Amino acid sequence: MTNVILSTTDISKRFPVTQSVLSRLRGQHRLAVNALNGVSLDIIKGETLGIVGESGCGKSTLARCLVRLHDCDSGKVLFEGTDIGTLNGPARRTFNRRVQMIFQDPYSSLNPRMTVRQILAEALSVHSMRPKAQIETRIGELLGLVRLPPDAADKYPHEFSGGQRQRIGIARALSVEPEVLVADELVSALDVSVQAQVVNLLLELQDRLNLTVVFVAHDLRLVRHISHRVAVMYLGKVVEYGPTSSIFAAPQHPYTDALLRAAPEVDPSRRTRTVAARGELPSPINLPKGCLFHTRCPLAMDRCRTEIPALRPRGDGHLAACHLDTLPAKATP
Ligand code: SF4
After folding, report:
1. Which of 54, 130, 140, 316 has the least C-beta neighbours within 10 A?
2. φ and ψ of 71, to 5 deg
3. pLDDT at 185 over 70
4. How many domains are contained in the chain?
5. How much distance in Å is there from the Cα of 266 to the middle of ligand 1?
6. Rounded to the nearest whole angstrom, what is the distance from the C-alpha of residue 301 to the centroid of ligand 1?
7. C-beta 307 within 6 A of ligand 1
8. Which of 255, 249, 243, 254 is nearest to 317 (CA)?
9. Is-contact 101 123, C-beta < 8 A?
10. In what order do the strands lie in the sheet with 32-44?
């Protein structure tokens, strides 16, 4: 695919589960949470890719692998074709500058003892973004970019609302002039009205600064509003992936269909009281065999219990990992 800036090739990530001394003495298997189970994605320069799924589906782990806060156990993350796992020294610092992450809770990532001026000056100095004499001017520009008043520079993080703190987090990320922003549940903790303001600001900044954005969220309304393409994740795998318009108009995976039916803003004729998909999310420690969704899928067949479905094209860049070629009109109960 042309213009791919960041991509993942079959990446997996497991987290060992802490076990008691007794179970280790008994020689019990070391358990692990299978957070990512072979994720391959392309992120195109200038686009917003939305990543959605239920809590525990691996989307935040994927976000962290994209910025190398986690190293993958297998597979690769490529930035402009280079495996980021091989980057060291100055090359790693350059990658860290060009691909920035914004976290769900800016409060925990902003030093409460530093003013906004100090926070932004520190970010500008670490990557030598400006000569010392120009730092003050740049701080003013950054505050203007995220629509905070100039006097915000002299305040501490606790003096701001949640939405304003998220703007400070965005300003800090922008201070190093990144090309890719990975936003992990950027507005999940904010009130709906504030969410819209922060999301609209992000859209405006993306356009103005030609940013590529990976927008990780569980809220389908937001993802639909902001994304050019969407990847739907389930138990550490991408089950559907493609242009937002195509996925929302005609989902090709029963899990996406269930998510859309449960979302508050889809076509009322398709809406049900379904929570998302029926049943419990299986444990990521003991993954189901075959299709990971078969324990909850209303359309599961015998082959689904043994055979892993591949992501297959469904037309116009739209892919889905399901043995069915098309979904029946009413896929979920
Ligand atoms: Fe359902 Fe089978 Fe498709 Fe999996 S492969 S989503 S179990 S129909």
Report:
1. 316
2. -90, 140
3. yes
4. 1
5. 23
6. 7
7. no
8. 243
9. no
10. 32-44, 4-16, 74-79, 82-83
